[in-house]
# Entry
Amino acid sequence: MRKVLAFALIFSLVIGATGIAFAADETKVTFWHAMHREHKDALEHITAAFEEENPGIDVELVDQGGYTELKQKVITAAAAGQVPVAAQQYEDSTIQYVDADLMKPLDGVVSEDLINDIPQGLINSGTFMGKLYALPFNKSAMVLFYNTDLIDEPPATWDELLEISAEVTEDTDGDGKIDQYGFGLRPTPELFSLFFHQAGGEFLSEDKSELLIDSEEGVHALEYMAKLREHSLYQTDYLSGPFGSGKVAMYIGSSAGAPYVDSACEGNHGWDAAPLPDGPANGDSMIQGTNVGVFTVGKSEEQVDAGIEFIQYLIKDKWTIYWGKKTGYIPVRKSALNSEEWQSYLEENPKRRAMTQMMKEGFVYPHHLQWNEVRNILGNVLERTMLNKGEPKELLEDGAKTFKEKTG
Amino acid sequence: MSMRKIFFKVLTYLLLLSLVAAVLLPFYWMVVTSLKPPGEVNVVPPKWIPSRPFWQNYVRAWHAAPFGRYFLNSFFISVMTTLGEVVTTILAAYAFAKMDFFGKKVLFLSLLGLMMFPGQLRLIPNFMLASSLGWTDTYQILIIPWIASIFGIFLLRQYFKTIPDELWDAAQLDGCNRFRFLWTVVVPLSKPGIITVALFKFVGSWNAFLWVLIMTNKTSMRTIPVGLAVFRSEAGTHFGELMAASTMAVLPILIIFFLAQRQFIQGVARSGIK
# Structure
């Protein structure tokens, strides 16, 4: 009995002994992010420089795991009015935050010079319902990774991509099974969207009430992908692994994957990144990665202002170049991309050249409150086509109909 | 006859061995992958043994996040929640199994009913409660809500019910009160059940991810599963290092399991019910 009581006492003491303390004489900016390792180190470095130049502002960087967890946490915290001052966010998160009236519009607050210096694709990425809510931060663009031991000249057009894929696909040991595929195809909504855009497709009707994927361009893109599939390793996991081991000779993926490609290829074969092959309408790349925006809920004016200062500081020429060098991402300002410093960096790191070019010619998804639903539809249509579950035209019509049903 | 017996014995062992293999294979794969150089992680056909052990994965993984602190937190929180739950569960289960009181059935059924609400549904209200108490970023919030478990109460209640009431009658004759009877008779007789409850809790706490992530912001309050997110990114996963970190994370659980297993068997041997 006494033992039990003593135990209960110790137990409550140990738990009770932990407390919290706050000190607040500076303006505090909490920044929630999902950056790790080299990325986190670089972010901390830039933040330290910011704090040094702005003695009245204290930035607290909070690592919230992955992007999914980060978003979940923002939504949970918003219910209790405890969002951070600023956070990394994908477009489909921003639109939900904007819809819930959590965010600060940046028009008129951020200088025109800065806005004009950011490639249009990236500005579109942060603009919702006609207003700018987020600035680009860690951005990458899709490029074509290829095995330089197998391919001398990367394909420049869709036709060449198909040709080279067919040529390289081989049963190297003669056992009747293919050991080396020309292309690696991961059925993501983004991959379909890329081909759709390059075919000249428009995603949404003007009033955003219809999904226009069942257009001629949509059918063309999907039929092309079905042909490409015949010479492809089809898998739902990241392709840097099979690419590194030599099982796949080419694949289209985010430039942010370059460090993974590099380590997967180590000791196996050489690699390079090329601009995307041109499609019938254009050779644009899809821009990926997150933006940063500022929340207003439960925040003082000073905090909001300091938050805006901070997200602009992150992409000062000096720092967006620094960020690009330290991570797999690409600088997000025209002046930085054209700067002598970045150009001479490209001389030393020619693999980053195509990534830089693609960044300038990038597009992003249109914004729609239920874009997650659209992504599901796109992924579903692509997957069913790849698994021969129907004709591209019918599947696309199905997808457009599903959109109507879900959003109508 | 004996041929048949041998045949069945061989069959049984084969079946058991294949089950063991099925359970051990992921472990084996985890450890082997943790020792592979980056270029060998994804090769096809898969490499069952790395060409050379690449210990660097462990060094890199350890330095990728403050894992020392994470281990300490995970261990502290798991131990505290386990101890706490064992105490509350034993008391509640005993009341439900062996005592009569007003509204017992209704209370028990409503507890069971509460289990039907999924955790995600309670996350936002829980967070609001925690933040209005000022408990976010504290050990309290990571421990106190977890020191009661309906599942544990249910499990132990069923266990306690198997203890014959005659023991209580006899104890009463010797002048024993309820509390003493519980701690000196029921608890020792129920060791396997209690250890099961404790094991479930320990493993659950050790693996808890979402709760810790939502309730904490400070690195100093985070635990291992949150730390493992470091190895994933939008562009890929560092499998070698992730597996190295996972191997390190699983190790304490394995050790505790082996220790508890011995206890578990002792518990069965000692139970003394004829």
